[in-house]
Queue: 2 jobs
Job 1
Amino acid sequence: MKTEDDAMASRRQFVGGVTAGLAAALTSPAFAQQGATPAAPGASAGPRRHAGRPATQSSKQDPTTQYRRPPFPPQQQDPPGLAGKMDPRPDHGETSYRGSGKLVGRKALLTGGDSGIGRAAAIAFAREGADVAINYLPVEEPDAREVIELIRAEGRKGVAIPGDIREERFCKKLVADAVRELGGLDILVNNAAAQAAQHSILDLTTEQFDSTFKTNVYAMFWITKAAMPHLEPGAAIINTSSVQAYDPSPALLDYAQTKACMVIFTKSLAKQVANQGIRVNAVAPGPFWTPLQPSGGQPPENITTFGEHTPMGRPGQPAELGALYVYLASQEASYVTGQVYGASGGEGNP
Ligand code: NAD
Ligand code: MG
């Protein structure tokens, strides 16, 4: 197992060798400025700033100012959007997450592993010693490349499997390819999602309704079903649900329903497979600063104040969820199954 110094050294090496864009972001004065110093409440972003980051994973800080607070610069992308084009850039734990050997030798497949919450989990899994395969849409290749480089910088296997999970055939191939490349499967994270805000049910087309359910619900079913024959006792499935399953926003009628489906899928499957030694849990995040939101997930007018309404007064950064996915995947959570973990800055359920 690698020591912390080895890990730090490999990260330093990574920062030296990584793609110019990410390296620039990691070393830019704006990033450094916001490194150990909390962003002032309500501070203006300025161009291309990082969201801020903790000095270390374990340093004590005020969580309300640990990361950027609204207002954020107005911004829009076409879906699915790129983390690399967000302002400020989200923090996925690239420079802060430190592993301690919790997942040594495990093999993990994550959908939506290129950006946002899935990227944070992918980085954390690799730093904990897992080999990691990520799925994403082909247009997200620039984000995915950065994640694969980060995984490989840990000396772990990083496997990129682009493709559209709205197709059952692709979902089966995704699992088969991941199992072949990784040499098995221990951890499955159903994390990809589509979210397109519509103010009225009259604007919600059958095509959108169908596409949202295909991405968020059918794909979870297809991928999980294909993965089951490969999972052995000690394996873990983690589904990314949402606070929307409990406290839906008016503009997210279709999306909120899919996230509620995921809660019951999780609880139902957990009961079905507990006697096989396979655990199934879900995470229900509140507002997190990811490409999903400025690429149609929120009405554009909501982006500048995103997360402001929470008791924390800011959105979460994906890095703030990495450790939770690690816990649910690890043997430390051996008695945890059929549970939904909220992470929504003080509001919502569960
Ligand atoms: P994100 O945009 O970084 O990740 C979503 C990913 O879904 C994309 O990266 C993309 O790769 C994938 N995806 C979408 N359509 C796909 C398709 N047809 N085929 C293959 N992949 C597809 O955003 P995120 O916020 O990190 O989203 C991750 C999960 O978190 C989602 O399940 C989302 O519902 C959930 N979530 C997010 C928030 C939030 O505020 N960001 C809140 C609650 C729940
Ligand atoms: Mg993405």
Note: The chain is about 35% helix and 10% strand.
Job 2
Amino acid sequence: MVDDRNSDERASPEKRISGQVKQITSVSNPIVKDLRGLVLRKNRNKSNLFLGEGLKLVTDALQKKWRIEDIIYGKSFADQDAIAQAAAKVRAAGGSVLEVSNQVLEKISRKDNPQMVLGVFEQRFQALSTVRPKEGELWVALDRVRDPGNLGTILRTADCVGAKGVILVGDCTDPYSLEAVRASMGSIFHVPLVKASEGEFLQWKERNAASVVGTHLAGAVDYRTVDYSGVSVVLMGNEQQGLTENLANACQQLALIPMAGQADSLNLAVSTGVVLFEARRAALTL
Ligand code: SAM
């Protein structure tokens, strides 16, 4: 999506041409403005794109065949083999290559010491109707997760336990925000994401006869005693409010992680990790 005119000329995103290398040295270049705009959810939604930092992210995306709109790197790093190779692959796949000054890199990433490489990727969501858990497959569902760091960490953890994907129930934070992508450490490209309203999730659960274990501070069962063999979804609650009553009532079991000490609950991402690893241990797949 890169303009074929010389660097720093006025360009609209529509006029950018893919598969080309473009030099950008001015922070006032309109392409820089477009890229910076991806920090806002409304712009990500409109363009169906998102920004991520680091060469690893770009290589993860390439490996999993995600569409990469742009690879952006600092001119001073242009001669690094790994960057040149990644740029060649992005270009071959029809993406654009932006070779930029350090100031431009800082401006786009909004950081004083930015990563050498940034990428602009196409967002992907799997439709809920296509999710049909088979025996032994585990999905994670999150009720109104608000914190992008929690969401990214959960994606990474879901990846580590080999969960099939993450279902975002209700009004959740955007998994494609810079913070969530950063916290996922590349797992954003490896863990399928599904969006559903609470009603859609509950209907889907009924239609697929999915067995759901919810985690709840008023849980009746110690999470270590749950029989995870037939369980297809582990459902986690919102950071402030926990699970809605509707969701809690729909769970086959509500599990509690017993706690010592004075804290009233565990962090959402930590508790997700605890339960997922127990579920996998019980299923003896790790
Ligand atoms: N004030 C909230 C409440 O009353 O539920 C606390 C929510 S907690 C920070 C966020 C989510 O993490 C919970 O909804 C639950 O899914 C999970 N969680 C945290 N600690 C837990 C525990 N000890 N047992 C079971 N689930 C827990």
Note: The first strand starts at residue 21 and ends at 24.
